[in-house]
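Suppose you are handed a protein chain with no further information: no name, no annotation, nothing but its sequence. What can you learn? This example shows the usual starting point.
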Amino acid sequence: MRSKPSDSAGQAVLGDGVAGVALPKRADPESHVARSAGWRTALSAGRTAAYSLTGLFLFILALQLLKSGAGGLKPILNAVSANGVVNMLGFGWIGAYGVMSGSPVAAISLSLFSGGTISDIESFAMINGSRLGASFIVLFVGFLQYVLHRRTADGLFIGAVALLTAFTLWLPVLPIGIVVLESGWFDDVSVGAPGQLTSFIDVVYDPIVEEASALFPTLIIFGLGIAVLLTAFTIFDRALPNLEQPSLRVERIKEWLHHPLAMFALGLAITAMTLSVSISLTLLIPLSLKGYVRRDNIIPYVMGANISTWVDTLVAALLLENPRAFTIVFTEMAVGSCVSLFVLLVVYKPYSAIILSVARQVTHTRRGFALFLGAILLVPLALFLV
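A reasonable first move is to predict its three-dimensional structure. Written in structure tokens, the prediction is:
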């Protein structure tokens, strides 16, 4: 008698004992989930890379357009008699209010200097002014949340603290920095762009700028540079990680965040990651509302954020191929760091008590907030037009 075909010949015994053809194995659900997560991660990384490269391309283009069109702004500055340290301080300050960020205004200042429109001291003053106005975005976001969502005044308080910290720390940097620049203490700290980068800029961007110069007046080119610069920063923002997600596990380090030096380091780190003090400071509002950060501990965070935000401005100085521009930014960063660290390590307790007390007073009533808002808007405008 012929034997039955074995299981290895293509048959299998089913669970109920009936012979049949082998069934294909079901896909592992966990494996499918892992593959899907891998694809999502790859797509996210691809989008981040695309946004970063596009933003970098536009950032360099904007600097070249601003440098080429800087001369078009000179007649306007002359018409309003805007020159000297005080006027440029107000110009940078009110400009940062207008674009809700300090970095674009600092880049514009360096472009004006490289284009020969303003001096190195005036550029330093304008950059310093941009630091004073960069924190206005925090107050603006806090105000919107207070009005539209009827939340507590925490956002307004944080915005007031951020602005007061910037005013009290970076205004003293101006006279000290001018002395340092005029004394030439950091004249040896002048880094130029690498030769390969310079060649790349000449080949890729010079034809674009030359074509724009042939088509438009210099003032239009300068305005186009501002538009491209703001677009570049917007695209850079899309490439940034969402720092409000629980993946950061801020809950696990709440106690650590109560120490001033820890908050200072956190401000340094997050601003270095985002390359924008506007973003890193605005994060204070949701972090405070969720209880991750105490309102009384945000001053060191603001200090650190206002220092590491100079990274993108240093890059802008390199791309402008002007070693003196790098010296200007380095001086701002070095003097600002010294002033901030002195306050943090030596007089932090009385300093923080004063800042927090004033912030509470100006946000306690509508009248007090209106007076504070009017003052911080009128002062830079008066400095610009005086």
